[in-house]
Amino acid sequence: MTGIPDPGAGGQRMFWDGFQWVPRADSAPVNPNDPNVSRKMRRLYLGNLPLHLGVTEDSFCKQLYERMKEKGMCNDPNQNPVLHIWFARDKGANYGFCEIASIEEADRCLQLDGIEVMGVAVSIKRPTDSNSPAGMVAGLQPGQAAPSAALALPPMQVQATTSIIRIEELLLVKPATTRQEYEDVVLDMNEGCGAHGKLKSVFVVRKEHADRNKDLKAGDVFLQCDTINDATKIMRAMGHRKYDGRQITMKSHEEYMWNRAIKPLMREKEDRETM
After folding, report:
1. Contact 99, 43 (CB under 8 A)
2. What global pTM score does this model have?
């Protein structure tokens, strides 16, 4: 993302790290020590996870930390370098990603490739979009067939029925929620979802909107896509992602309902901004 939030505005921009939105660190993007700049080099792919045996993000995080500490891989043995862990939970999937605190610790963590978890050897590799050639996944060269467990981000095979997508309660609205936070969500959606399909508009339902219309819920987001095909691409690419650690839900929304409830609110907003 290109902007940094105004510290006084109360908003929290989210950073699209390639598989989910996470809070953006408040540091200059040109700073080489900025965790957002180094995020891709600190992110590792996890393959052959024993999800069927009940392994969880928390249990894996604990085991990975203990093994890194045991082998002297942590910069500070008293601080867990594993910042985030995400497991794919699509039908039949058994892969995930983890984010390590520093590039050095991520490099060392690669030595744990094949770590045994619940009797299963888990692979730890560089993800697709690190410094690997385009199309390379877990050491495979472009054009090679990858096993299903190594596919970094399999699309959800859904089909949009309209050009409007509704994302339920993407923003958790509270009494202290600021205007900046609503605007930040719009920017985040344009960046993350707009990369997969053409967007005409993004609208976030505010509390005052929901108070006036019982069919609306504060924090819901409506994406107006250029075509149904664009909506399908976005839903397949983004429908199983997380936003600030929470699973998001995307559904097709009837265009006549969007025209009746959302379009007038967008016109109101435009009128206020031109006054």
Report:
1. yes
2. 0.51
